[in-house]
Write a structure and sequence with these properties.
The chain folds into 2 domains: about 5-85, no CATH class; about 90-285, Uracil-DNA glycosylase-like domain (Uracil-DNA Glycosylase, subunit E). Helix content is about 35%, strand content about 15%. The protein has 10 helices and 13 strands. The longest helix has 18 residues, at about 200-215. It binds iron/sulfur cluster. Iron/sulfur cluster binds near residues 125 and 205.
Amino acid sequence: MSDGRALARAYLEQQRLLGTDAVMVPAPGDSNVPLSAAPGASPGRTPDPTAAVSPTPGASPGRTPDPTGAVSPTPGASPGTTKLDAGLSFDPPAQDLFSSDPVQRATTLAAIADLVAACTKCRLCEGRTNTVPGEGAEHARLVVVGEGPGKTEDETGRPFVGKAGELLTKILSAIGLAREQVFICNIVKCRPPENRTPQYDEIAHCVPYLFRQIELIGPSVILAMGNTAAQTLLNTKQSLGALRNKVHRFRGVPVIVTYHPAALLRNPNWKKPTWDDVRIAHRLLDG
Ligand code: SF4
């Protein structure tokens, strides 16, 4: 970037995406829109979800379909302005060098998968066919976290397969990421009976595996898909609706909250907001 205006725009864009301030930033190429602070914005203010992604005045109405079935701005047209506030921050203790806990002492994802395969810490071990520890790149920049394995995942030992998995693969592809470039996993590593929501004690027993996986991978962004993933990673009871449109942090790593792909299959109206969330995660990766 050669001029001060471009540098200022890049800086403000980064601050906004990191959730350190609430600012309105014109999109690249939107030279008619001045840089300005969001009117009345202040850190910690609850944003109006309906105003979080709004069209830039004068922007082209032309839009093209996105792979999830929602719509996205036409290439070259202004995607509009985005306003995000800083969200929650959860910072559970990291690895203790002197710990005798085998999870804390595991130094590779494969070692964690081995521990998961032998785990009987909660009742979910009783009905499983396979454990589903997660899969993907050892040092992925993006970690995707869902709730727990379903029927197909239990049968195959792989996360996010079946129809919801196919939709996730399309969503990732739309932001230029192959599944293999991402680490995909769940809050619990064994299938809950009848796909019920994991219970509190099951999550408490299982989540150290996930926390250690994230610690070893060291991602740039975490995408929490669904209530269980979001509430566990952020240690909150807040609803998914309240958690969207903010940049949260898990041990300092930005966390974006969105709908679970299985929920999108039940309610296609959530595809558009999910696409908005995933684009924010993508822009954080690029930041
Ligand atoms: S769900 Fe997690 S804690 Fe429970 S048995 Fe499976 S691996 Fe162990």
